[in-house]
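Lecture 7 notes: from sequence to structure.
We start with the chain below.
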Amino acid sequence: MKYKNFGPEIWDRIDQVIDLAKSKQTQQFAAFDADGTLWDTDLGESFFKFQIKNNLLPNLPKDPWRHYRDWKESGDPRPAYLWLAQINQGQTIDTVRSWAESCVKEIVPLPIFEEQKRLIEKLQSAKIKVYIITASVQWAVEPGAIRLGVPKENVIGVKTKIMNGKVTNEQDGEMTYKEGKSKALLTVTKNIKPILSCGNTMGDFSLLENSVELSLAVGAAIESSELFPTEEKLREEARKRNWLIHRF
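Predicted structure tokens for the same chain:
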């Protein structure tokens, strides 16, 4: 699918921010949401479907997809997001990561927004460190990040603790949803706010609000999509604050 490129006004503003970052003496950061922001798919949910299809996990409830969706839509989705990491309990982290890589390989073509890849390359060329902050399971998103040139160590997502090389069911770090995204990022950057932030839904609002120079609200959801209302709401908030807006 052909996606719309950033206009010259967006690139001009990005170049201004990059020039500003270069003038500073300290490490600068950029922050991106993942699903719907960097690619036109949900890698977290795709990974869960991959695990179900291939019978990779024992002891899942009957109709695991419906179980997850009902839980997600019950009011607070955070326990459902954490559960998608917890169900890997007992598996080695290497195994889970290999599953995630196999899942992404099956998504052909992976619908990456090429403008985002270009943006990330420009930021990295300017020595601006790029982080991806996602409410999806971190291990599911890492293969997508790698395809954008972002190392897996720079992906911050929902995860559980690893003990002796195996996944546990104990939450590890912030729940990277809404305000938790900014908290998790600032923990890693030692409270240095990003110079640029980009997201597509209201779940990314605090991430964009915490950017010190450029906040970019993006999206590609069609009107019939469940994501469209929250993307539209973020665009409304972006207009109020004079943030940049782009629909792929």
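Points to note: Strands lie at 29-32, 129-137, 155-158, 160-163, 166-171, 196-199, 214-219, 244-247. DSSP finds ten helices and eight strands in the chain.
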